[in-house]
Write a structure and sequence with these properties.
It comes from Sporosarcina newyorkensis 2681. Belongs to the NADH dehydrogenase family. The protein has 355 residues and is α/β, with parallel strands linked by helices. Helix content is 28%, strand content 28%. The chain folds into 2 domains: 135 residues, FAD/NAD(P)-binding domain; 123 residues, 3-Layer(bba) Sandwich (FAD/NAD(P)-binding domain), CATH 3.50.50.60. It has a 6-stranded mixed sheet with strand order 5-2-1-9-20-19, with no helix packed on it. Helix 1 runs parallel beside helix 8. It is globular and about 60 Å long.
Length: 355
Amino acid sequence: MRKLLLLGAGYGNMRILLRLLNKDLPKDIEITLVDRTPFHSLKTEFYALAAGTVPDSEIRVAIPNHEQLKVVEGEIKEIKPGEKEVLLVDGQTLTYDDLVIGLGCVDNFHNVPGAEENTLSIQTIGKSRTTYQTLLGLSGGATVGIVGAGLSGIELASELRESRPDLKIKLFDRSPRILRDFPERLSKYVKDWFDKHEVEVVANSNITKVDQTVLYNHEETIDVDAVVWTAGIKPSQIIEAMDVQKDRSGRVVLNQYHQIPNHTNVYVVGDVAALPHAPSAQLAEVQAEQIVQVLRLLWKNEPLMEEMPELKLKGFMGSLGKKQGFAYLADRTVTGRIARLMKSGLLWMYKWHNG
């Protein structure tokens, strides 16, 4: 049997399973999936779990059942490409012929003193649950600081506003305007929503220190009751420890077939792959489609294509609570109720396709 080992039940590896687990899967392929939870978590919806607007059950998707798929619940300790082994924290050693690393990232605290110790997170389903419990326990009139005004920060701030209208919410943005890399119309729409719903956007911010109840923005001190950190991501220590080439952000450099050049039986999908696009669920899925193509050719002992197609993305969608949203698709801006319905429909379709 040829062993395919998938690390992480994220968007990339779920797409790989969706494409492989059918009648075309060779009978001599044995697939093992390793994750810390026995289900797939919808990471793009963690903001809603943290805000308390959706239950835990709404953002879990079952891992498919298949006679050639084995699911191992555990924490990964070390990846050893030279030995074709993966070590788990509980002492297990898993071997493989082909490996796909899809472990995702962790919060990047940018060496800000106190940030790791004194902030909440929405990077994992477990941390999002903790964030929800903390925010739920705040008294009326409490101040919540959200550091980082990317998509996660925007969606968390808007969802929390609908969930807890009694809270004071401050969203800290390093840029002079929300979503500065996109059309001004989009930025204005999001900023106007925040102004209307009394979410304070602190532009041109630079958080230099975080205490338990104080944020330091430049030379100013701001009293807070809780802080959620959404200011960037980086690969985990497991990836940092791998002796492979990485880019300036610590992501793994790959060849055009999404393989590690010196270990061509090892693929990297998703947030920890050095790609020409910002990490996203959509990018992981597009990349996964190509990895499946490569694996199928290799399993058939057929030559690989001379050049892989460009990774093309359709755009992005974001929500502003349950009724409004925004999208940037094919260089076009869509805002309002239609954009929110589009995102809800996309989420429904994703769940349907994944069983």
